[in-house]
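Hello, quick one for you while I still have it in my head. I'm working through a protein record and want to make sense of it properly. Would you mind checking whether the tokens look sensible for this chain? I owe you a coffee for this, so here goes:
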Amino acid sequence: MRILETNLNFEIEEFKKPLGFKGKFVKGTWQVITYLRSENNFSIGLGTQSVLWSDSNVFAENSESGGNALMFAVTQYALKILKGEKIENPVKILEEIFDQIHQYAKKITGRIDLRETFTLNSLVAVDNALWVLYAKENKINGFFELIPEQYRNPFKYKHNKIGCIPLISYAVSIEEIEDMIKNGFFVLKIKIGADPENDGDREKMLKWDMERIKKIHERFKDYPCQYTKNGKLPYYFDANGRYDTKERLKKLIDFIDKIGALEQVIIIEEPFPEELEIDVSDLPVRIVADESAHTDKDVVKRSQMGYKGVALKPIAKTLSMTLKIINEAEKRNMDYFCADLTVIPILVEWNKIFSSGIKTIPELKIPVVESNGFQYYKNWENMLKYHPFYGKKWILPEKGIYQLDDEFFKVSGGIFEISQHYKNFVG
């Protein structure tokens, strides 16, 4: 297929309250809408931008809007490159153009050490549009048929239940956590690495994390859970690279063990800044890579450092790159699951259809996918109406669980359908 025409726009969606992670706070996100047209078909692609998650240096050096504008400019540059190009498949074209786009991103951000995830995040809307167009051109109607043969090995399952993981950021109270549990959510994803006095003091960070974890465990340690093999609520700690030494992380783990919570910890995600290449193979918990696993090559590297899992983000690093990432993770017997980027309802479907075909984390009885947009977006209820299948029971979790029926699989969560709301932004 040849790309004859492109277009691009964005919509800003505000949060109800600031989202805290990496010691910073985000007030909202830009939703990017791309349009691609070939001779016979057109497609719309969506992507949620997160500058703080993808490169905290860019976030720190610019205003929140300024950082988003830089990422948006990278998306625009990618579309310029694609216009007029003949494309064999999305994975191949991403491989061909990524380096050129990443060099441009380095130039406009002024950072020679720009993280590849920044550029990948900018390409999600483009990549999604390419996959939808590719499906139309080749008359493919299902997500799993869309996946190229060499990347199909991990997709051996068909799960009809997926647990939804909400996000427990710094500002979420114990009472709010209890409400989540009562509503059926069972995996507690807890952000750690706060900067309580905004002075960068890591000892204060550690003390704050210990106190927070202790309070959560004291309240919820005896809550039963039907979806875990040990019958207890699982803890998932996300540090977003805030721990600066292995010794400090060990202090945290030792404390978790001391209070009797270690058996419930299924994940500690991204504890260190990625430039600290620390071997974690001797730690008594599953250490999982997220931002540091930019590409499939990084997965190989992290595996060699003792990382036992990887957070998959087709909605943040492109489906094309995520297929390569899961392939390498599968070869190395790593665990994996789909994590969120506080994305809009339609993008959650890309994670859900992906998750419905892959293996489950060993401690859990059903697969899980993170989705926290309902917690943070001011406009979430209206955004649900932008979904082409608005009102279907599989769109929202029921008592914390997505119930996936035959219709969900037939339409692949609606990822190939055009949302009129977003189409209006690009003509």
The chain has a mean pLDDT of 96.
